[in-house]
């Protein structure tokens, strides 16, 4: 009787948290970082990186996968920084030049999970030695450690279908445990969308497939808890769904980047105050660091830490050095 009541209450709570967020196309000239973040720290790197693709936060270090000009802005390596932002050196580079898809971190084993297109590499960050690597038959876009399991999101093609997936792996053996979610579509062309993984409290969230929706681990990723409405002003996506990125929950915000009418936008929705922050991204619009007076910065991306996102700033692509910005999002 008691367990039945708890179960009913649990599913009722999940139902009550499901909501549609209607995007109002009222654009701010800029979104100040003070509107979404309690703290913004930054550090300058002198290395010749074009961008920072991924950033992992640990107790003592940061790990980054930097984009380089010789790999056309994509990353094939991992570098280590101390907590002051000092560059400590490169700890991994793909011997074949294979591009890195994402980074995840397992604190219990002090190991970094480095994902390539169809390969997972387990790296000990104390010895900088590869522990294990496995090839898989699916393409990887995002990874995250959650409750001692490795979640892997990505996509695959058959002759007539495009399939987005969320798989669970053992983080030590790198063996597949189960496929947690699949979204299948008729294959139109071989363009794909990067999935997003984020977390908050005791829940993991995934956004994947050809919909602007966020799913939660609380109900096994069955029903969307957040649906972004009116992103395209109730018109067809026309392929723009491929550009919906960094879509998830962080702090007290639901957030997404998206493309509409050939422009790119950044969007934050305060779930407590029911207030949106929307701006076109560009040289003179988008996210603006008013806390440190750095100016406009690139659209933030998720980190492995629930409450943090990161961004970068590079005024000229051909100049050496890059600024890394870490944002502690308001909760």
From TrEMBL:
Known InterPro entries for this protein?
A: WD40_repeat_dom_sf (IPR036322)
Q: What is this protein called?
A: 6-bladed beta-propeller
């Amino acid at each position: 009787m008691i367990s039945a009541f708890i179960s009913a209450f649990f599913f009722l709570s999940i139902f009550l948290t499901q909501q549609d967020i209607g995007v109002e196309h009222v654009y701010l000239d800029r979104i100040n970082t003070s509107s979404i973040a309690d703290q913004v720290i930054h550090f300058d790197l002198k290395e010749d990186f074009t961008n920072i693709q991924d950033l992992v936060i640990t107790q003592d270090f940061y790990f980054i996968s930097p984009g380089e000009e010789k790999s056309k802005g994509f990353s094939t390596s991992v570098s280590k920084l101390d907590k002051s932002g000092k560059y400590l050196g490169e700890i991994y580079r793909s011997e074949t030049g294979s591009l890195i898809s994402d980074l995840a971190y397992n604190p219990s084993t002090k190991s970094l999970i480095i994902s390539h297109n169809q390969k997972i590499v387990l790296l000990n960050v104390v010895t900088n030695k590869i522990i294990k690597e496995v090839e898989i038959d699916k393409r990887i876009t995002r990874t995250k450690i959650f409750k001692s399991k490795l979640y892997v999101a990505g996509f695959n093609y058959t002759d007539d279908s495009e399939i987005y997936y969320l798989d669970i792996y053992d983080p030590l053996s790198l063996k597949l445990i189960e496929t947690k979610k699949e979204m299948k579509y008729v294959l139109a062309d071989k363009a794909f969308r990067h999935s997003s993984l984020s977390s908050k409290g005791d829940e993991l969230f995934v956004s994947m497939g050809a919909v602007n929706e966020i799913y939660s681990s609380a109900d096994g990723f069955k029903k969307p808890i957040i649906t972004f409405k009116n992103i395209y002003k109730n018109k067809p996506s026309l392929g723009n769904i491929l550009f919906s990125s960094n879509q998830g929950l962080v702090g007290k915000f639901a957030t997404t980047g998206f493309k509409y009418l050939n422009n790119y936008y950044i969007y934050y929705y305060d779930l407590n105050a029911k207030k949106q922050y929307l701006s076109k991204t560009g040289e003179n619009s988008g996210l603006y660091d008013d806390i440190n007076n750095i100016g406009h910065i690139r659209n933030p991306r998720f980190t492995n830490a629930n409450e943090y996102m990161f961004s970068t700033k590079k005024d000229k692509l051909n100049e050496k050095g890059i600024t890394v910005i870490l944002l502690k999002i308001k909760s």
